[in-house]
Amino acid sequence: MTALRPPARYDDARLDGYRPQTESQAEALQKARQFVRLVRVRAGRPSWLRLFQRDDGLRGGLYLVGPVGTGKTHLLASIYHALSAPEPAAGANGRGGAEPVPCAYTHSSALFRATEPPDAYADRVAAEARVLCLDEVELDDPAGEVRLIAVLRALRERGVTLAATSNAEPERFVSGHLGRDRLERFISEEFERQYHVVFVGGDDFRQGLEKEGRAWVGAPDAARAAMRRAYEAAPEPKRWLAFDELLRLTTEVERTRLAERLAQSGALFLDGIDVADTDDALRLLRVADDLYGLPAPPTLYFTAAAPPAEWFAAEGRGGVEAAIADKFARTTSRLTALAEVERV
C-alpha cells in the first residue's frame, strides 16, 4: 500500500505552492495545513493512548469538496507529500522534527475495483499506512456507496485517518438522485458527524492554462479535414484513433496499459468524439483521467460535432445518469485544458 503515490503530475505539489483564488480556497489551504499538523500530533502519541483519545479536532479526517478545477487534488497530493517527509526540526537546538507519517494515496475507482471485503481492504491499508488519501470520490450506484462507507468505518476502527476529495457533496451522492431517503440520511450522518467537510469553490483554473493541443468542433467533414492537416504536419510518434476504436480498446486493454500505449505517441488525434450513453461517458472519463495524470501526456487533438460541455451534460438527466454527468464535467474540464477548441 505504501507504493500507492499521487500521479506523477503531482510530484512537485506542495502546500506552499497552492495559490488560493477565492476565500473558500484560502480556508481549504488552512484546513489542509491544520490537518497535517493534527495528524502529526496524533501520530506522535503512543499506540495505547490513541485507543482512548478524546476528540483532538481531527475526527475521521478531511473531505474537500467542490467544482472541477479548484485545486483539490493539488491539496490532497500536497498533504501526502507533507506527511510522507520528515518534519523540519524546530529551534536552534535542532529539536522538534518528527518522523514521516506512512501514507497511501489512491483513486476511489481503485477502492471500488478491489475485490477484498471492506474489513480486509482496511486491514491491508492499516498494515502499512496511518493516512489514506482518497482522490475523487465518485459513486455510480448505491452498492458503491455502501462499500465506501463500510471501508471508511473499518479504517476508522483501525486508526487510519482519511483525507479525500470529490466534486460531489455527500448529500449529492447517487442515493440522493435515486431518492433513497434512508441511505441518504446514513451518508449525511456518516460524513457530517465523522469528517470535516470543506467546500473548495472557484473557477476552473485549467481553462486559464496554456493549451498545446487543438480541437475542432462542428461539421464532421470540415473538422476532420482540419485535424488531418494538423496530423500531417505533426512529427512522429503520433497516433490517429477514431472514437469508436478508442472505445473498443478500453474493452480489450487494461486501463493502465492502455494509457501507457497512448502515451507512447507524442501527439494523439481522436476523431469524432460522440458520447452516446453512460458507458461511453465512463470510458472516456477513465481515459482522460489516466492521460491527465501523466507527467507528460501526449499533445491532444480531437474532433466532435458538439462542444465538450454538451457531450453529457447533467441538465435534464436523473438517477444514475445525473450522477455520472456530474463527474463527467471533470473530463470535459481536463480535455479542454489540454486542447484549444475551435469551431469550424
From TrEMBL:
Spell out the Basic and acidic residues composition-biased ranges: 8-17
Q: Which Pfam families match?
A: AFG1_ATPase
> So which domain of life are we looking at?
Bacteria
Q: Which InterPro entries match?
A: ATPase_AFG1-like (IPR005654), P-loop_NTPase (IPR027417)
**Where are the annotated segments for Disordered?**
1-21
Alphabetically sorted, this entry's keywords are: ATP-binding, Nucleotide-binding
| Protein name according to UniProt | AFG1/ZapE family ATPase
Q: Which organism is it from?
A: Rubrivirga litoralis
Name the gene.
Answer: zapE
